[in-house]
Design brief:
The chain is α/β, with parallel strands linked by helices. It has eleven helices and twelve strands. NADPH dihydro-nicotinamide-adenine-dinucleotide phosphate (NDP) binds near residues 28, 77 and 80.
Length: about 300
């Protein structure tokens, strides 16, 4: 089994490491990461156990036929990755393991074999070639995009399971991706703007904002024909409050981490995507629009 991981950073290198004992895995990363992983091996600590893994990691993709190509870049880089490597996709199943709405749609412009993915685990850089698995908020999910499931999905899920990454196959990956995006849209920008971890957002004033974000998101999902796992906003908000936030209480969102590092966020694939899709259905999403503008403002001015 040959697997390539494109845009390998915190998520991609960690997954490459765990799959490397089961398959022939090649990670494509930036020079700094490729050099460090080649010199030191990748060190993983935390909830997946501690260990150091060696596997090929370079800045280019060796000419070969791959069974699976995993895309693990930020959503903002999906199109560039597809432009750079799209003519090498061949018959591979190309799998998005990213946050946000829109990655699978972009990949579909380059291949007909798209598997959507959703992972709700925290991966944090601790140093060069050194990643800590900080939180696990549920099972990873994979399914054919836009819907359905087949042997390739089952084989992928089986490999993840054998590698110790809890994963399930789903017939409706769009529902899983939208569900995760609503979780991210509810928590990430607010935590990033306020400079707090997820747990602090249980504060009643923050909770009112979260409630508005989720209600708008559910209206847009409904108009898009997405059937969400938690059927109503009330049921989902209860789950977010009682299960999802407690299991990721101390986590600073990836959006907070991106802003702190002076990097662009994935807001356009989260709240921004909800605003755009809502507008297409004549649904107004004022709270998602406001929080999107606040994040764009922070991206523009940084911490100055
Ligand atoms: N970290 C986490 O805890 C979680 C992240 N996710 C999602 O997973 C995705 C990946 O996140 P994460 O791993 O944290 O992000 P990272 O920024 O750590 O990793 C992505 C890496 O891909 C690199 N890259 C981009 N384009 C190319 C290219 N053409 N060739 C080689 N390398 C490239 C980036 O380099 P550069 O930055 O220099 O462009 C970066 O090093 C995101 O959508 C994120 O939201 C989902 C769950 C949890
Ligand atoms: C909480 C976490 C790590 C779960 O995957 C996440 O999605 C994020 O920080 O954006």
């Amino acid at each position: 089994m040959k697997i390539a991981v494109l845009g390998a950073g915190a998520v991609g290198l960690s997954i490459a490491a765990r799959l490397s004992s089961l398959a022939d895995v090649h990670a494509v990363a930036r020079p700094r990461h490729a050099d460090a992983v080649t010199r030191l091996g990748l060190r993983l600590t935390g909830l997946w156990g501690d260990g150091t893994y060696t596997f090929p990691c370079t800045t280019d993709l060796p000419d070969d036929e791959y069974d699976y190509i995993l895309i693990t870049s930020k959503a903002t880089q999906t199109r560039d990755i597809c432009e750079e490597f799209g003519d090498r996709f061949g018959d591979a199943s190309v799998v998005s393991i990213q946050n946000g709405i829109g990655n699978e749609e972009i990949i579909s412009e380059y291949t007909g074999n798209v598997i959507g993915g959703m992972i709700i685990t925290g991966f944090e850089w601790r140093g060069d070639a050194d990643i800590h698995i900080s939180v696990i908020g549920g099972d990873a999910q994979f399914g054919l995009f836009p819907d359905g499931c087949d042997e390739r999905v089952d084989t992928l899920v089986g490999m993840f399971e054998t590698a110790g990454i809890v994963a399930v196959a789903t017939e409706s990956i769009r529902s899983a991706v939208w569900g995760k995006t609503i979780y991210n849209a509810a928590l990430n920008p607010l935590g990033a703007v306020m400079g707090v971890p997820y747990g602090a957002l249980l504060n009643p004033y923050a909770w009112e904002v979260i409630t508005d974000i989720v209600e708008e998101a559910y209206a847009v999902a409904d108009a898009e024909g997405i059937t969400l796992e938690y059927p109503t906003t009330e049921v989902y908000l209860q789950y977010l409050h009682d299960v999802q936030i407690p299991s990721t209480f101390a986590h600073h969102s990836s959006m907070y981490q991106a802003l702190s590092a002076g990097k662009r966020t994935e807001i356009d694939f989260m709240n921004g995507a909800l605003v755009t899709k809502g507008a297409g259905h004549g649904i107004s999403t004022p709270v998602n629009l406001l929080i999107t503008r606040l994040i764009r403002f922070r991206e523009t001015v940084g911490d100055s």
